[in-house]
Design a protein that fits this description.
- The complex is a heterodimer of chains A (273) and B (235).
- Helix content of chain A is 40%, strand content 23%.
- Chain A is built from eleven helices and twelve strands.
- In chain A, the strands form two sheets. In chain A, strands 1, 2, 3, 4, 5, 6, 7, 8, 9 and 12 form a ten-stranded mixed β-sheet that branches.
- In chain B, 80% of the residues lie in helices and 0% in strands.
- The longest helix of chain B is centred in the middle third of the chain and has 37 residues, at 100-136.
- Classes of the chains: A alpha/beta (273), B mainly alpha (235).
- The interface between A and B is large, with 43 and 39 residues.
């Protein structure tokens, strides 16, 4: 078939029509983010105010912390907002980020079926809960995706002196997916799992699952915010990124975070210093 | 399953209520997938015709390769396109990652082998029928290809629809290169994945119904177009 050049141009124009490259204007930035902040609706609540204050559009790519950090290392973002402090500090130490600031926190919880075969319900100790689950070989759904929650879970297993990896595929189920997908898997198969409270509260497929363990200091879940280093990634929108970080850390941003509620509960607790 | 009936109700109210956000997502889904199919057809039809008409060493191998590439996993295509378009990648300077254009590129790569392989088969069968005639008239290869594409246009339309089906239904590639960004790169399939992960199963399923209706409408539109074209050509 003889394709005329103008036909190709026409089709290319059609394909491109209305395409607004995310990186074209100074007025939009990309935030590589953990899923809990996006899925819980926090950004939907905060970003319109931020846009009104600054005129900057924030495009959120919500993936697990591990993938968010990887994407940010590839310079595919202007700001990183995740929850794995040591990995974040490493990210900054390696020169990818300008500086890391505490932004807010919430906590991790254990959820499970009401039958509670491992009898962890009502306990406070995360280590004890994991030990009981392992001893009774009750099903446990793990993120298995190198996310912030997964890193925390692995640290807790290590603290308990257990290596569930050997039981992978038997009672220890590594979903390799996001928090929501893992909660769906846990609910579907009657398995325990560990989730951040924000995702749990905003999750709609709880069925008869309940929070069984909460309140352990070890389950503290800190979120951090980092502007990507423009010396490392030349295309970073330095000013807009810094404006976003500053706004989130400002009194106004912190108050906005604190005022976000779902089902009458506060999801994130600001603690910038 | 109460989710099922709830999903039906939700789907109906989504469509009848004409939700603006949903409208935006539908338009983007159609724009991305239709553009990808158009581009893939521009590459795939000539490629299919070429491999159907020309005989050269390695032709069988190319046919097998094209057939095999029909099974390209979307997530792998997404990953490859991500690595190419990432700011750290070779095409990073184009600033295309997390844009609808990136999604069009990924789906074009996904759909082109399907269109090329299926159209090659269609045109090869037709070529076998007319081969002697073409040769006796000493028609040049380019003209043969054009004639084959034109004469098999109705079958090729179905081929293009097969490609469209693949494009509109895939989530693996567009979620990686598009990032599922609200109001920018969110399409039907990534919205379904998102609502599933939020545990909103009824809403996710309702969006699935809407997607089915969308695919049905496109197929019905093409079918009626084809029917009226046929009627005209016999008139």
């Amino acid at each position: 078939m003889k394709t005329r050049p103008e036909t190709i141009l026409l089709i290319a124009a059609l394909a491109l029509s209305g395409t607004n490259p995310a990186g074209s204007a100074e007025t939009s930035i990309i935030v590589q983010s953990t899923t809990s902040t996006a899925n819980s609706g926090l950004y939907d609540y905060l970003l319109p105010t931020f846009k009104m204050d600054t005129g900057i559009t924030v495009n959120v790519v919500a993936v697990g912390t591990g993938q968010a950090i990887k994407n940010a290392k590839n310079c595919d973002g202007d700001v990183l907002l995740v929850h794995a402090k040591s990995a974040e500090e490493k990210f900054v130490a390696e020169g990818f980020g300008l500086s890391r600031q505490d932004l807010m926190y919430n906590d991790l919880i254990f959820v499970g079926p009401p039958s509670d075969a491992a009898a962890i319900g009502g306990g406070r100790s995360a280590i004890e809960a994991l030990s009981k689950i392992a001893a009774s070989q009750a099903k446990f759904a793990s993120r298995g995706d190198n996310s912030g929650t997964h890193k925390k879970e692995m640290a807790l297993w290590q603290e308990a002196g257990l290596d569930p990896g050997q039981q992978s595929g038997r009672w220890y189920l590594e979903t390799g997916s996001g928090m929501g997908a893992t909660l769906n898997a846990a609910v579907g198969s009657g398995a325990y799992t560990m989730a951040d409270r924000a995702t749990w509260i905003s999750f709609s497929n709880k069925q008869d699952f309940k929070i069984l363990v909460e309140g352990d200091d070890m389950l503290f879940n800190q979120y951090g915010i980092i502007a990507i280093n423009p010396n490392r990634c030349a295309q970073v929108k330095r000013e807009a990124a810094q404006k976003f970080v500053d706004w989130m850390l400002s009194a106004k941003g912190q108050a906005a975070i604190a005022s976000y509620q779902l089902e009458g509960q506060q999801l994130f607790f600001p603690n910038a210093n | 399953m109460q989710d099922f009936s709830e999903a039906f109700g939700l789907a109906a109210s989504l469509i009848l209520g004409f939700d603006a956000d949903l409208g935006e997502i539908i338009v983007l889904s159609l724009r991305v997938s239709l553009s990808a199919v158009l581009l893939a057809a521009l590459i795939g039809f000539p490629l299919g015709a070429l491999t159907a008409v020309l005989s050269f060493p390695g032709r069988q191998a190319i046919a097998v390769l094209m057939n095999a590439l029909m099974g390209l996993p979307p997530v792998v295509v997404g990953l490859l396109v991500y690595m190419a378009l990432s700011r750290a990648g070779p095409l990073g300077w184009m600033n295309l990652l997390y844009t609808p254009m990136a999604m069009i590129i990924a789906q074009t790569i996904l759909v082109t082998p399907i269109i090329a392989a299926l159209s090659r088969q269609v045109m090869e069968d037709m070529h076998r029928e007319y081969d002697e005639q073409f040769r006796s008239l000493c028609i040049p290869t380019r003209r043969v290809m054009t004639a084959l594409i034109w004469d098999s246009r109705y079958s090729l339309l179905t081929v293009a629809l097969a490609g469209f089906g693949r494009a509109i239904a895939e989530v693996g590639a567009v979620i990686i290169v598009g990032g599922n960004i609200d109001h920018l790169t969110r399409v039907m399939t990534t919205a379904i994945a998102l609502e599933t992960s939020k545990g909103n199963l009824a809403l996710a399923l309702a969006l699935g119904f809407v997607l089915l209706i969308l695919a049905l409408s496109v197929n019905a539109a093409v079918y009626s177009l084809r029917a009226s074209a046929k009627r005209l050509s016999y008139a």
